[in-house]
Structures are given as structure tokens and as C-alpha cells.
Amino acid sequence: MIKRIAALTALVPAMLSTAVVTPAHSAPRATAAVVTLTYDASDAGQWAGPIEQAVQNWNNAVHNVRLEPASDPSSADYVYEATSGWPQTTLGPIFPGGSGEVQLGQQAVDEGYDATRITAHETGHILGLPDDYSGPCSELMSGHGPGTSCTNAKPDAAEAAQVDENYAAGTPRIRPQHHQVVIDVWSGRVLTNSR
């Protein structure tokens, strides 16, 4: 019995060091292509830092889309622009070859809202997320709902999952011709349309 245990003790390390051979017919797992969206921030002025952080936050949170600065501003899929009004954005999801616009409004900053949160929130619209003002501070798309003390500029897990779903199929064959513009009034005031 002792001889058998000794033989097994010598055999186990030899078995563990044996290489595992993959059959020749097994194919590597296919991974979905990541959609790369390019942006131009040349007209964003003082928003450069918040844009860089917001883009980094989104790139860290999602897997199916990546945001990168455009090498040529005229070829950007969307643009960031500093304005004096309220933030407003093209509601996506925007895809390569598309045209979206993020207007980063100074009025929201003047009201006391965090510039990086504003930028990340507006970028969420480009990626196809609607507003949810009743959400908590941990939800980026709650926007101004939680008030000026909320500075969270990172999407939560559900928001990141929705963006990944929006881009899961890669670039669509048919692109919508018209996009809705979302105007975020980051204060207690409500804008009304007078006709």
C-alpha cells in the first residue's frame, strides 16, 4: 500500500505539468467588434478637462463602444461645444458616420452643477440614454434631479449595460436621418414651449 501511495505521489506532479492540447478543430471564440466614435472638442473651451474625464469614465465603464478624439475635426461623429445657455444634446445612439452635438451650457455651471457630471450626462445622451431626473445621485442620467451637491460623473452598472446593448450589434446598416435634441434644464425651472 505504501508503495502505491509513493507511486501516486510521484505521478501527480508529472500529470499536473503535462500540457493540455487543444483539438485542432476548435475555433477561437469570436468577440464583437468595438464601435469607435470620434469627437471634436475644439470649440469646447474651458470644458476640455471635464470632457477628458467624462470620456475616460465612459470608456472605463463600457465594452462595446469607445470614445476617441477625432484626428480630423471635420470627420468627427459628434462635437462638444461650449455655450452660454443650458446643456443640450443630440439623443443617440450615434454611430460612426453620424452627426451629434453636445452643447455644454454655462448656465448649469452658474447654478452650481458640476461640469464633469454635466459633460458625462450629456455624453450619455449621445450614447442613447434618456433622462431619469427622479433617479439617485449614483445614476448619471438623473442629471440635475439630485441637486447641486451631486458630483457623480460615472455611469452606474445599469446605464453601462444599456449602452453596451445599444452598441452590441456593431454599426447598424441603416442610420436614422433625424435625431431628437434633448435640452437639459439643470435647475428647478421648467421650460415651456409657447406657440
TrEMBL record:
Pfam family, one: Peptidase_M7
Main enzyme class: hydrolase
Catalytic reaction annotation: Hydrolyzes proteins with a preference for Tyr or Phe in the P1' position. Has no action on amino-acid p-nitroanilides
InterPro entries to which the protein is assigned, alphabetical: MetalloPept_cat_dom_sf, Peptidase_M7
Gene Ontology cellular component terms for the protein in this record: extracellular region
Cofactor(s), by name: Zn(2+)
Source domain of life: Bacteria
SUPFAM superfamilies: Metalloproteases ('zincins'), catalytic domain (SSF55486)
The EC number(s) this enzyme carries: 3.4.24.77
First and last residue of the signal peptide: 1-26
Single GO biological process annotation from the record: proteolysis
Annotated GO MF terms: metalloendopeptidase activity; zinc ion binding
Keywords: Hydrolase, Metal-binding, Metalloprotease, Plasmid, Protease, Signal, Zinc
Family: Belongs to the peptidase M7 family.
Protein's name according to its UniProt entry: Extracellular small neutral protease
Native source species: Streptantibioticus cattleyicolor (strain ATCC 35852 / DSM 46488 / JCM 4925 / NBRC 14057 / NRRL 8057) (Streptomyces cattleya)
